[in-house]
């Protein structure tokens, strides 16, 4: 009498894969939970200090909210927005903000690129220039403002001493004239924040293979031709990032103006955030200040979107050409 055959399940690759899949899924779930735990602290801070206040700002812009009474106050609708759009000081502060952006963005992009290219070409001592350019950026705005207020002090400041050494007659001071006060704030800002863009450009330059420059040099390309044909195209994304970040940072100017000129002389350097601060915490009208903040936010988003659209249109033209 023969024994019955023992039936065994095939142990092919598909079966092994199915058996191993539950363990892999449990591992992925564990890693996912760990990832969310690591993100939780940042998420809490993001909601508490950025997303939450932003939503509260939008809500209060439709109410007569004040710092001297609790609650949202009476419903105002679009009255706060209409008031801000009808105020001449709102438009002047917005123009001063755009003026500061025009003064600072081109130099901070061009100078950072030039200094990064020069530093990247050095075989020794790059650490010194990284430190020299980036060190001012880590200083607080109060320190920077005090330094440059001393430099622009009439008669006794370094700026007056330089004018005297060049045979010029020192004037009333860079920060004392409505025509030059914003230029003085822009100079201080360029000196302060140049290092950040410099580091971004230097990091982008070090990602470009040296072989490209060596091949171009063998073909007889000059330094300018190498920059035009290799450096600028390969740093296109870095330049886009630098310009966008710089525009947004310049539109949010507050510290330097408040500490160096306090919006003066008169209101010649009063920027949007200073007007918002005055309406919210001096006039105690948080609703109107929130409306002005929303309008400034719309301007910043609009400029950023326009900048991106122009960049994409230029890229499409290059591809088409």
TrEMBL record:
- Keyword line: Cell membrane, Membrane, Transmembrane, Transmembrane helix, Transport
Q: Which InterPro entries match?
A: ABC_transporter_permease, MetI-like, MetI-like_sf
Q: Name one Pfam family in it.
A: BPD_transp_1
Region of interest: Disordered: 1-30
Q: Which Gene3D superfamilies does the record associate with it? A: MetI-like (1.10.3720.10)
Bilayer-crossing residues are 36-59, 100-119, 131-160, 180-203, 234-254, 286-306
Q: Known CDD domains for this protein?
A: TM_PBP2
Task: Give the Low complexity compositional bias ranges.
Answer: 8-17
Has UniProt tagged this entry with the keyword Transmembrane helix? yes
Subcellular location, in the record's words?
Answer: Cell membrane
Q: Does the keyword Phosphoprotein apply?
A: no
Q: How does it sit in the membrane?
A: Multi-pass membrane protein
Give the family from UniProt: Belongs to the binding-protein-dependent transport system permease family.
- The name this protein carries in UniProt is Sugar ABC transporter permease
Organism, as annotated: Curtobacterium caseinilyticum
Q: What is the lineage of its organism?
A: Bacteria, Bacillati, Actinomycetota, Actinomycetes, Micrococcales
């Amino acid at each position: 009498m023969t024994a019955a055959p023992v039936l065994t399940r095939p142990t092919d690759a598909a079966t092994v894969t199915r058996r191993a899949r539950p363990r892999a899924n449990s591992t992925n779930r564990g890693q996912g939970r760990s990832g969310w735990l690591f993100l939780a602290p940042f998420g809490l801070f993001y909601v508490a200090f950025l997303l939450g206040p932003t939503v509260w700002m939008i809500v209060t812009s439709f109410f007569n909210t004040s710092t001297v009474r609790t609650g949202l106050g009476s419903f105002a609708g679009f009255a706060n927005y209409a008031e801000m759009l009808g105020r001449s000081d709102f438009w002047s502060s917005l123009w001063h903000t755009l003026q500061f952006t025009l003064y600072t963005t081109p130099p901070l992009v061009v100078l950072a690129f030039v200094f990064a290219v020069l530093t990247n070409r050095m075989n020794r001592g790059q650490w010194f220039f990284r430190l020299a350019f980036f060190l001012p950026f880590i200083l607080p705005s109060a320190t920077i403002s005090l330094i440059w207020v001393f430099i622009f002090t009439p008669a006794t400041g370094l700026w007056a001493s330089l004018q005297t050494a060049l045979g010029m007659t020192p004037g009333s001071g860079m920060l004392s004239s409505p025509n030059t006060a914003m230029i003085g704030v822009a100079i201080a800002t360029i000196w302060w924040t140049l290092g950040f863009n410099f580091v971004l450009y230097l990091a982008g330059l070090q990602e470009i293979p040296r072989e490209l420059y060596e091949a171009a040099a063998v073909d007889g390309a000059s330094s300018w031709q190498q920059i035009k044909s290799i450096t600028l195209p390969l740093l296109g994304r870095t330049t886009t990032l630098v310009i966008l970040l710089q525009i947004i940072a310049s539109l949010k100017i507050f510290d330097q103006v408040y500490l160096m000129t306090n919006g003066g002389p008169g209101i010649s350097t009063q920027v949007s955030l200073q007007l918002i601060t005055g309406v919210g915490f001096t006039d105690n009208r948080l609703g109107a200040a929130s409306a002005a903040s929303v309008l400034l936010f719309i301007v910043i988003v609009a400029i950023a979107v326009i900048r991106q659209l122009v960049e994409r249109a230029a890229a499409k033209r290059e591809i088409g050409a």
